[in-house]
Specification:
Layout (H helix, E strand, L loop, with lengths): L1 H33 L5 E3 L2 H9 L6 E3 L24 H6 L4 E5 L4 H9 L3 E5 L7 H12 L3 H23 L5 E7 L5 E2 L5 H8 L3 E2 L11 H7 L3 E4 L9 H8 L10 E4 L2 H4 L6 H13 L5
Parallel strand pairs: 1-2, 1-3, 3-4, 5-7, 5-8, 8-9
Antiparallel strand pairs: 5-6
């Protein structure tokens, strides 16, 4: 009798120990399901793109006018432009988190925080490596850290392959024009785009300048072999921009090959940045005329 009782108690203890992990898992699952879902407003195109690439697009409730990729982002309500979003429209979406780039004004972000909404401001444009920091920061916020690390590893492998190939070739002088006319904006030495030009095997003539601005005099002085030109807003093919650039003084005096690039792809730090580097390599090293 005594042995039977002891055996029964032992079996009960073992069964209890086996049930504990299942009970803990069940409690964690209920806790996770009970947690309120994030409501995110993205004020930057690369933030929006990254959230979708991480498989967390369902968390987004708002975007900026410039958040046009991927296509499903267009179904989200817009709170205005990147530089001056509407605080009223933003608050009406009742977000729990607002993620912005460095271009959004501190005054607006302070007002968002005052309303009790968390703000994550990302300023990573000084280096190409900042792209990985941006992805990692967003992934951590949306509970997709593992997906973020896998994405970064895949990108790093592609970037390494392109950089190794670029090291073996010639390095033509390059100027990346983001805007021109009354104001000349370029990929200056303090930007991630300048580093991309170098990784793709180009010699950026604007490396000696800062803050995305360049002078017409220095551009004419260097007369780069390749001018990479961003299409004007609304000019999808870039043909109108190309004609304007090549027929307007002083740009028409440049002798280099002018090549239109996909600004939405190349100028946005995010999940497609490795593909952007591949495209940039192709643009710099292909042979063609003006």
């Amino acid at each position: 009798m005594h042995n039977t009782t002891t055996r029964s108690r032992l079996l009960l203890a073992v069964a209890t120990l086996l049930l504990i992990p299942a009970l803990l898992f069940s409690m964690a699952t209920v806790e996770k399901e009970a947690a309120p879902q994030q409501r995110i407003v993205s004020l930057s195109p690369n933030v929006t793109e990254t959230i979708y690439a991480l498989g967390k697009g369902a968390l987004l409730v708002g975007r900026s006018d410039y958040c046009t990729y991927p296509e499903e982002a267009l179904a989200l309500p817009s709170v205005g432009t990147l530089y001056s979003p509407s605080l009223e429209k933003l608050l009406a979406l009742e977000p729990t988190l607002v993620i912005s780039s460095a271009f959004v004004g501190d005054q607006l972000l302070a007002a968002v925080e005052k309303a009790g909404i968390e703000v994550l401001q990302l300023d990573t444009q000084q280096s190409f490596g900042g792209t990985y920091d941006l992805i990692r920061a967003i992934a951590d916020e949306v509970g997709a850290s593992d997906q973020g690390e896998l994405m970064i590893l895949s990108m790093q492998n592609m970037v390494r392959d392109i950089a190794l190939k670029a090291e073996k070739g010639i390095k033509p002088t390059v100027y990346m024009a983001l805007d021109f006319g009354s104001f000349d904006s370029a990929a200056t030495g303090d930007t991630f785009l300048s580093e991309m030009i170098r990784l793709a095997g180009g010699d950026n003539v604007a490396d000696d300048a800062l803050y995305w601005t360049y002078s017409k005099e220095m551009l004419l002085f260097h007369d780069p072999e390749i001018i990479l030109l961003s299409p004007r807003w609304g000019d999808e093919s870039g043909e109108a921009t190309l004609i304007e650039f090549t027929t307007t003084k002083p740009y028409s005096d440049l002798t280099g090959s002018v090549r239109i690039f996909d600004d939405d792809l190349i100028s946005r730090q995010g999940p497609r940045s490795a593909l952007a580097l591949k495209e940039l390599y192709a643009l710099i090293h292909r042979e063609d005329g003006r």
